[in-house]
Request: fold
Amino acid sequence: MKLTRRAVTAWGGALFVSTAAAWGATSDAGARRVLEAAVDAFFAGWASGDWTAFLDCCDETMTFQFPVGEQRGRHGPPEGKRAVTAWTAAHQAQGNRITESTIDLKLFAADWVVVCDRGSGTIGGAPYTGLHAIFMRAGPTGRLVEFREYFGEIAA
Reply:
């Protein structure tokens, strides 16, 4: 069999389409509304220090995963909701704020959203600038059932 440029292009296009379908490139409209509201509430919580709206988006059966601090690790239900509640309370008590955020990517796939942003503000009383990758999954209850965050601080 002779491999032509057209054959490679067609195969590559098929791979792209099938990969997109396998990853659920289209999202459920209901899940997308839940995820949009959760993302908005998350960034509003960082900006204001009031996490009530974000916590209202979180299901009692959620899994919470964070890389550092008191809530480090992966916390499944029912500890997940308690861990995210403690995490937000600690940020609120310390006065931590991300007041500027630029979203570089917001990708919806089935019942997930992935948000990558660059944010700056104050953490622990010191200036902070970081890159964040945030994953949220909507559940059948119309609330978040999973939250994962990964980040790296950018040196000044």
About this structure: Helices lie at 5-22, 29-48, 52-56, 79-94. The chain has a mean pLDDT of 86. The longest strand covers residues 97-109. Residues 47 and 99 are 5 Å apart (CA to CA).
